Amino acid sequence: MFGNLFEEEEEDGFSSTSSKGRAAKGGDEPPPPRGRSNLCGIKNQGGTCYLNSLLQTLLFTPEFREELFSLGADELGCLEDKDKPEAKVRVIPLELQRLFARLLLVDQQSASTAGLTDSFGWNSSEGTNQHDVQELNRILFSALEHSLVGTSGSTFIHRLYHGTTVNSIVCKDCGNVSQRQEDFLDLTVCVCGVSSLEEALWNMFVEEELFEGNNLYRCAQCNRLVTAAKSAKLRKLPPFMTMSLLRFSFDFAKFERYKETGRYSFPLTINLRPFCEQTDGEDSDYTYELFSVIIHKGGCYGGHYHAYIRDIDELGQWEPPEEDCKPKTQKKVKEEVKEVCEPKLQEDDPLSVLTAVIAQESSKSVLLDQLGQKLMDKIGSSWSKKFRKHYGPIGKFLQSHNEVFLLVSNGTRVALKTNPPSPVTEPPGPAEPTTNSDPSAAPESGGSEPQLGPNQKPESKPEQQGSHWFDLNDSAVTSIRESDIEKQFQGKESAYMLFYRKTQLHRPREALNNPQYKIPSHLIQMAQEENIKLQQMREVFEASNNTVELHLHLAPSYKLENGALQTVHKESNGSTTLSFDRRKTVGDLRLAIYQMQELWEGDMALTVAKSLPAGLHLYNTLTDDSVSVYSAGIYTNTDLFVWNGREVCGATVQTGAEWEPVLLTVVRPFLGEDVEQEVEDGVECKESKGDFENGGPGLKKEARGFAGGSTLGEVKEALGEPKESLLCQEHKGGKRKEQEAGEGGGASGWRVFPPDDMQRTLKELSLKDGDALLVLEPQSFDSSVFTLNGDVVTVTTPSDCRWLQVEFRPQVTGEDGEKEEERKKIKVPATGNMLLSEVKQRAVEELQLQEQTAGAQFCLRQVDCTGKLLPPVCEELSVRDAGVRLMTTLTLCPGNGPRASQLFLHFTVGTVPSAGMELDIIVEKTCTVKECLKAMLDAVGLDGTCWHLRRLDWCEEVGEPLMEEDASLSELKISNGETLVVTEGHLPPKGFLKMSVWLYRDLKNVVSDFNHTDNGPAEEQMLEVVTAGETHGRSPPLCGGHTAELRSVGQVEISDEATLEDLKTQVLTLPALQDVCVPTTGFMRVWQLEGRRLARILRGLQVTLRKLKLTSGSDICVQQLLKEEDLGLKEVLLNIKMGVPGERCYYPPEEMVWDASHDSSPRSLRTCLAAHYGLSPDALLLAKHQPDKHIWEEISNWTQQVSKKKKKKKADSLLGAPFHLKDGDTIGIKNLLIDNNRGFITLEDEQGQQRLREQAEQRRKGGQAAASDVSGPQKKTEQAKSRKPEVALSINVGVFR
Following DSSP, what letter does each residue of 267-335 receive, concatenated? Predict the structure, then answer.
């Protein structure tokens, strides 16, 4: 159900065309042809595998297919006319015809359902939603029946699929029979507690249910309660019988859904005579044979669908599955070797998992759009769920590991670079007409058979009876055996829908192996034109895709230096680009280079080269002129070195991987007069790149390259060092040593190479590019910088660099200039072993703060890259142990620093803290949550026990409470510098939600049932409500002021498994609402509050609070209604205001429900408003109010961007960008027939804009914003993410009656 795995990630720079094997040609790659089965799959749009499985089943139902093709343009219309308002075009059957024709006739691996889903009225997001295939089966057939009203095909769904059952109740006293007939499209059969399909049908249509004891039946003829028997029978059998298996059930003990995975068998042929009302017919009248099984893999909340289908007309080319073609002994040996040799899979390592997935395939490669499914099969979890957070999209992961993975077959498959697919097993691509991986080689008789076109008939060959079963899994189509169906009787991957056909239905001989049978001529012509276009695209792509770009490096432009080839002239790169056909031979390539270099004399050797940090290095030389460039391993961007094969500029060149040059950083002492300048340079580089990469203070560095096969003694000789000199490598030993080498410690350690290492090569010593090599002469130890202790040399940082800068930052109010004057900086001499308390003491003394602030406490704090103060450092630790680097800045701030056993925490009371507004506290790590809470309450002067602590979640909002009050902070893994929120109220019970309830009161028209009584609490909390579309503030009477207030009425505690109806019922039991009387809960509207804004209306009386995403601590608001309301998922409640003609104000607002389920365009809203006011839609001008900005955004028909993928215009939707209409938004309306003023801005809006400008000016000048700024809470509310509503499956059909 995951579709093309890379479709959504190509925008991030990952292309499905191999960047190594060929020159990338952009997005012009044609779709690959059909595979060996000669059948076409269907592309997954992201979550449409349920649709693909059903469509393939209908396609391989010949009678359904032919009935559909029998409908002509005279009845269905023409797709080209669908945008004409007067034309009646039946789009759904026309698109289904086109899709079926493409699946049967067009030579492509998979077809797209985009046109069909567009005809359903689905938007782009619908393709990623998962739905139930049984539900789709009913909805699709209903849509087709409605689409075909008035045509000759209006009854074909009914004729093929509709059957009849009859329910009978027989009175045991008088024998009276009461019957009721019911039609069915499919039979829903039980799975729970049943072992087979026959048993389930027996329970449904043979077993009788007795009405006796306390459960008697009232007989109409006896006119009294009697004993009776109830039974059901099949009265009319359809030609095609669909069985829907009830795999999903609900556990009322655990209150959760689950999937029945037990064994449930079903026959390939079934006789329904025992279950029918009339049983006197022939056996053939009741016998059905299985021809399709739709399989569901996964759980009850998601998974993947695919179908096992029997190819009745034998349109495909069935071959025995690969496993069946191998001898049994070979399989057994392979399994034993796999058990012994296959390493244990590391499921937390994506590289290991993907490598194992690809390696286990027989072809050593995997289709890109199947990689996600195979990954889930391997580890039981998807990439997005397990790895995406840490490793990013899978496309980028493969791209960043191009040394392991390789895209082959024109980018349709991914293989391992160390084990590319063999010529026999790799499927052919557009650029490779045969299965031979060498494009220049002709097909041989021993190779696999050539691909068949969609209109070609395969050669007849003996096949087993009952073959022609295929697994149609989105784009992939593979042959299976009939016996494989038994594997789907049980497990997480099991049968979900069964399709049977009567054995009486025989196919004519001319339909066999004939995909064009009964397809209209215009569709055949359309398919032929598409095939011609595809063939042309493949020919062009094959020619361009077989061209590789080679980089030629000519020997006269290079010299051998530092173990590698360097260009003679530094300003030139010394390479020439050559475009060459990779199907030609190496001899042809050599000849082409000869023709380019007319002055070349003597032999010419072509050697594969690679540019390394040390320079250009040579590997293998191309010696066989008869092989193709592709077979020789030459890909695009390959470097070739052109030389005589022996020497370059008189110097012998060593080739091969063992002689790869290594670029080392040679470090020497530098203690001259310019040490200070050198130190400054070293400090700057070291802070950006790490320990001693650039030599470090007191050291100078030089990059030198050496051949990897050179010994360490040869390196010393090449450096011109005397024999008594020492060569040292950075010491990477124990943890303690690593700390000593850190920048905070002021010293670094180096290990001296022993004499035996002088005869070992750089490769043997595992030296790699960038490694540092310290060269010391004996007299170097005379200075205080270098100390030899055994085989370890310690390099001590010069005293010039042993300091910390301390900046005093007092809490001063005033202008910026005054603050700058108050800040003081001082350099304090420091070492890595110095305690931070000593650093602070020296800074206080040198800044003379003891006299100015007698008795004041100070602490040291680090500053991050944004200038934000970090938590105070523990002064009991040394500079090194606290992780403070020398030559950095610490800030001296008022306050105490924590000890090693304490935590420094931020906290706030009630709400999410604003930047810089948190309070600070220091507590022991061992103190409990309850003790920490008490300390925080004491710090702010609050009393009582009705408080609890909450953490901030990942998006810096108030998160889950700390439930374990007796647990210590260290046990809960609360870290230094974390922010906690002190929240009012007791801790909610586990599994229960505690929510504050507010009452919506309209000050203009307070509903009598919700009158404020004097019986409530003495102190009542009031808030003025801000709806989504209203400006906070008082308004003139006619200017649209929607003045209302919220009154707190208490709190409710309720289970998160309770429904919205339960919540409404419990709210009505609050004492403050005891006088409220509503007929049903439908007369009450519940809003969710965010800040002071009515954010969204809660919908669905039977939806649980968990599904409504309500959490403990949420605020809800109840509003009484004058009429019952049950809003749908896409019904939007809007506040509409009609402008007063000639004036800059509005009439009082009204509420209107706009149904956007079928059409969410501006035209739909305008039509709805026109019907509400009784005006013409063309006379209305609309705008949405944005209260935070005090502006109006005019709503008109606009043109959105064209999708780069689908190359078509998206549907205009007011629910999406840029308007995002939601509940409570205000829509302003102008009647242009009587109002010439097209502006929507009111005087109040102008005043609001002026306030915003003044506030912005104050912030620009550094002043503090006014405390009464109303845009603050509104802006904060807008930052909350809007949740995507759940949408039910539906298909929109036009009216054709």
Answer: -SEEE-GGGBS---S-GGGTEEEEEEEEEEEEETTEEEEEEEEE-TT--S-----GGGGS-HHHHHHHH
Go through the chain and tell me how many residues it has: 1297
pTM of the model: 0.46
Using CB atoms within 10 Å of the CB of residue 674, give its burial: 0 to 12 exposed, 13 to 18 middle, 19+ buried. Answer: exposed
Q: How far is the C-alpha of 531 from the C-alpha of 518, rounded, in Å?
A: 19
Q: What distance in Å separates the CA atoms of residue 757 and residue 764, rounded to the nearest whole number? A: 9
Alpha helices in 449-608 (DSSP H): 521-545, 586-596
Rounded to whole angstroms, the Cα distance separating 664 from 706 reads: 8
Tokens read off for 239? 């030609």
Place of tokens 């009387």: 1077
Reduced to 3 states (helix: H, G, I; strand: E, B; else coil), residue 161 is helix
Residues 125 and 147: their CA atoms lie apart, in Å, by 24
Q: Is the CB of residue 163 less than 8 Å from the CB of residue 184? A: yes
Name, in order, each residue with C-beta under 8 angstroms of 199's C-beta and a sequence gap of 6 or more.
Answer: none
Look at residue 1211 in the predicted model and tell me its pLDDT: 56
| Residues β-bridged to residue 1050 | 997
Give residue 993's identity as a one-letter amino acid code. L
Contact 858, 810 (CB under 8 A): no
Q: Tell me the backbone φ, ψ of residue 63, rounded to 5 degrees.
A: -65, -40
Distances in whole angstroms, Cα of residue 961 to Cα of each of 154, 346, 758, 986, 988: 60, 35, 64, 10, 9
For the ranges 358-362, 560-564, 789-793, 799-803, the lowest mean pLDDT is seen at 799-803
Cite the beta strand spans of 596-674 per DSSP E.
Answer: 605-612, 615-622, 638-643, 647-648, 651-652, 661-669
Supply the residues annotated as catalytic. 49, 304
Residue with tokens 């089965």: 37
The 10 Å CB-count burial string (b at 16+, else e) for 874-912 is bbbbbbbbbebbbbeebbbbeeebbeeebbbbbbbbeee
Residue 578 sits at φ, ψ, to 5 deg, of -130, 125
Tell me the pLDDT of the chain averaged across its residues.
78
Q: Which tokens go with 1209?
A: 């215009």
Q: Contact at 8 Å (CB) between 1282 and 1222? A: yes
- CB contact at 8 A, 109 and 32: yes
What contacts 902, CB < 8 A, 6 or more positions away? 922, 923, 924, 925
Nearest by Cα to 7 from 103, 110, 156: 110
Q: Which helix (H) or strand (E) holds 399?
A: helix 394-400
Q: What are residue 663's DSSP bridge partners? A: 705
Q: Which tokens hold the place of 948?
A: 């609890």
Q: Are 1157 and 1131 in contact (CB under 8 A)?
A: yes
What would the pLDDT profile of 365-422 be if each residue is shown by its tens digit?
787 777 877 888 778 778 877 787 777 778 777 777 777 887 766 566 788 865 444 3
Closest by CA to 398, choosing from 438, 435, 351, 356, is 351
Task: 957-966: list long-range contacts, CB under 8 Å, 24+ apart.
Answer: 957/912, 957/1280, 958/911, 958/912, 958/983, 958/1113, 960/1112, 961/987, 961/988, 961/1112, 961/1113, 962/929, 963/987, 963/990, 964/929, 965/928, 965/929, 965/930, 965/933, 966/928, 966/929, 966/930
- Cβ atoms of 54 and 140 within 8 Å: the answer is yes
Place of tokens 């003023």: 1237
**Per-residue b or e along 785-814, where b marks 16 or more CB atoms closer than 10 Å to that residue's CB:** bbebeeebbbbbbbeebbbbebbbbbeeee
- Alpha-carbon distance of 1062 to 1106, in angstroms, equals 13
